[in-house]
Amino acid sequence: xxxxxCAEGRxxxxxxxxxxxxxFRRFYSSPIVGASCEARLIEPGVRKGRIAALLIFAIxxxxxxxxxAAISAASPKVVTVLEHRSVGSSEFEAxxxxxxxxxxxxxxxxxxxxxxxxxxxxxxxxxxxxxxALPCVVEFDGPYLYSFAWAGYLQPLDRFAPRSLRRDVLPxxxxxxxxxxxxxxxxxxxxGLGLWGxxxxxxxxxxxxxxxxxxxxxxxxxxxxxxxxxxxxxxYPLELNVYxxxxxxxxxxxxxxxxxxxxxxxxxxxxxxxxxxxxxxPQSIAAMDRxxxxxxxxxxxxxxxGVDSFYAGEAALSWNGHWRYADYRRALGSDLTLxxxxxxxxxxxxxxxxxxxxxxxxxxxxxxAWKFLAHLMSAREILRMTQANGGVPARRSVLxxxxxxxxxxxxxxxxxQLDAGYGAPRPPSPNYNLVSRTFSSAVRAIVRGGDVKRExxxxxxxxxxxxxxxxxxxxx
Length: 476
Known about the structure:
The protein is an alpha/beta fold. Helix content is about 45%, strand content about 10%. A five-stranded mixed β-sheet has the order 2-1-3-12-4. A four-stranded mixed β-sheet has the order 9-10-8-11. The protein has a two-stranded antiparallel sheet with strand order 5-6. Helix 3 runs antiparallel to helix 4 and helix 12 packs across helix 19. The two termini are about 45 Å apart.
């Protein structure tokens, strides 16, 4: 029996593996890391074995069968990987180098990495699942895990992830990756949300500089805004970044923690989550009333088409994330400082979550997929990624090695908030996409001066109607 291409046929040992890989390729694009199925099964070193097998075939077909089996055993098992970054980006290069290192350092498995630049990446994953073309390892934005896990696209990681790793991973990463009591994803980095401050304006206003151990209370926060509004050069004490370019995922990420800080939330907890009584409950209404008042008092700009007034030097504080550090540092220099978010009554609550990795339920090499995921979660690879994108390292042991996030680092406050468990996960619901869009629409209307209770009632109705239409999204 002679070797043939994957299209023509292959030994039974490799048939299923090749068909799965080729189905993945047809749905996406040619892999960046890894060879074709045919070339992978018949690599240069293996071709010598193929020639020998053909010679032996002239003498004994039985000997050929043994040679074929040896060749198949020598070929690495393919682990297909889909990631969301475009080719050439610093994050893609980090993943690309991680895949190359994994392939170089062991020979049992071979990672094939395929990037996609789809603007609707999560829809792409849904389409791939419907087509039966999900890769082994899938990357997705954290809160979309819940819809993927509910639909059965992912398999739990509990049997793979050792306790030692879980203990070292930030609680926010574990919270983000957990659905229905089971761990489905892990990420190399988290995000940070805080108050960026202009030291010059803060000194002029004579306000106390808060710390994670002693944050501003609601009263102290608003008193600081009032004082900062009188400082020369300050157009707005607070930049809340509500302009249209952030009016999607950022709203749920950045402003839902305000609801949590007041004791409210978007969805209720328990086996049957609902927006009624949560999003439009008294605590959430109080939170959004206060939020709206900051605009009405002129403490924050309500121009949805505006620009970042903090970056322009016209605001004293900015409610924003770690990704703004480089730009803000260039704009403010040594005047830039980072403050924790205020305690609005139930403790500091901060935004959290970022892109994470999971293993598809149809993966034919789950052990190999986990080995690659564990490789990505190593200290070396986490540092490689976070040095590329500036994210918060996902493991405590790696945080200590980070110049930015370690003790005394410029962004240490972000690490402190997450390590203390102050991260507020976005609603763990399969209909998160609708929840996020609906909440964002309500916030935009509130910023424009709309009636808070009416807007929250309307949003809660839309969300609960969707939950009812799907019979509560039951977990089988």
